[in-house]
Design brief:
The protein is α/β, with parallel strands linked by helices and 333 residues long. The chain is built from eleven helices and twelve strands. It has helices at residues 14-27, 59-64, 84-89, 91-115, 150-167, 195-204, 231-243, 265-281, 290-297, 306-310, 319-332; strands at 4-9, 31-37, 49-53, 75-78, 121-127, 172-178, 180-181, 209-211, 225-229, 255-257, 261-264, 284-286. The strands form three sheets. A seven-stranded parallel β-sheet has the order 3-2-1-4-5-6-10, sandwiched between helices. Strands 7-9-11 form a three-stranded mixed β-sheet. Strand 5, helix 5 (150-167) and strand 6 (172-178) form a beta-alpha-beta unit. Helix 1 (14-27) packs across helix 7 (231-243) and helix 4 runs parallel beside helix 5 (150-167). Pfam families: Epimerase (PF01370). Residues 6-211 form the NAD-dependent epimerase/dehydratase domain. InterPro entries: Epimerase_deHydtase (IPR001509), NAD(P)-bd_dom_sf (IPR036291).
Length: 333
């Protein structure tokens, strides 16, 4: 079986590093990885892995990713970016990283792919933050996206570029709109949604966490529903996305909303209580943040996933209780 070379940007991040480990484990020696981030990824050592520190806002840094000893990648997972709250607070930096660098990577994939006479598969991790404003009760693949945040606008802009590059035959694009990923391990990220992991992760570790929605456990704001997916299920779906035949996608778009599940913030805390008891729940403090609440409230919480499931994507069918149990099991391994 011929070897496949895969480039992952944002590979030092939580989801990027988890994807890399999953690909290494399941590749059976047929996959070579080029991993890059602004901080050099630490996965390895492995003969099938090369790690590079790179600033993807610089063209020469992008080009070096296509000139390693592994050669021009067959597939790219574009997973780098500045997270939602960071993009909202610093518009210029967010646009530079979340749009300009992605366009630069697309242009490089086009040029180097043409040079090697190959159509590079380009998997892009987008976000439910592309939605906003008045929305139907359930989001379908035809629901128009009108973001209400800088991050959402930047993700949607990249989707349009990827669809156009695909239409013109420059790349083979696949756009995965991710639910909010819970429970993320490690330190909190500069994402508006990062508290959704923190209010579970920190109490399980005996640490305090801040919930920026509501002022107490009895606050009606905690009835806010959110659309979530576990890290393990999301990574399995990203692995799948690379191999779906191009003709399985709808003719006009390569966008797929990955399956998730709906839960209220209050119900998340009740699931925490089942596992960690009242002492765990008492470690959650409430400090209402209007900016955070506005952004999270603009995101949809219910999706029609039939199209995604017809392509083979899976969801977390057992909900929040099982997601927490899976997190505990994985962190112990």
């Amino acid at each position: 079986m011929p070897q496949e070379t895969i480039l992952i940007t944002g590979a030092a991040g939580f989801l990027g590093s988890l994807l890399a480990k999953t690909l290494i484990k399941g590749g059976g020696g047929t996959i070579r990885l080029i991993l890059t981030d602004v901080i050099e990824p630490t996965i390895g050592p492995d003969a099938q892995v090369r790690t590079l520190k790179a600033d993807l806002t610089k063209e020469d840094h992008i080009h070096q990713l296509f000139e390693s000893e592994f050669g021009i990648p067959d597939a790219i997972y574009c997973m780098h970016g500045i997270m939602s709250r960071g993009a909202e607070d610093n518009f210029d930096l967010g646009f530079k990283i979340n749009v300009d660098s992605v366009v630069g990577l697309l242009q490089a994939a086009r040029r180097f792919g043409d040079k090697a006479n190959k159509l590079i598969t380009f998997v892009f991790t987008s976000s439910l933050a592309v939605y906003g404003g008045p929305l139907p009760e359930v989001i379908t693949p035809s629901t128009i996206a009108v973001p209400q945040s800088a991050y959402g606008m930047e993700k949607l802009s990249c989707e349009l570029y990827i669809n156009e590059f695909t239409r013109r035959g420059f790349i083979d694009g696949r756009i995965c709109r991710l639910p909010t990923i819970v429970v993320r391990s490690g330190a909190p990220a500069a994402a508006t949604s990062s508290f959704l992991s923190a209010i579970i992760r920190e109490p399980l570790n005996g640490q305090r966490a801040i919930c920026p929605i509501g002022n107490s456990l009895d606050s009606p704001e905690l009835d806010l529903p959110v659309w979530l997916a576990s890290p393990l299920t999301t990574v399995q779906n990203l692995v799948l996305a690379r191999g779906i035949p191009a003709d399985r996608f709808t003719p006009h778009s390569r966008m797929v909303c990955l399956p998730g599940f709906t839960v209220t913030i209050k119900d998340m805390l009740r699931s925490l209580e089942k596992v960690a008891g009242k002492k765990g729940l008492e470690l959650v403090e409430f400090k209402n943040d209007e900016t955070n609440r506005r952004i999270v409230s603009s995101w949809p919480a219910r999706f029609d996933c039939e199209y995604a499931k017809s392509l083979g994507f899976k969801g977390d069918e057992e909900g929040m209780d099982q997601v927490i149990q899976d997190y505990i099991r994985v962190t112990k391994e």
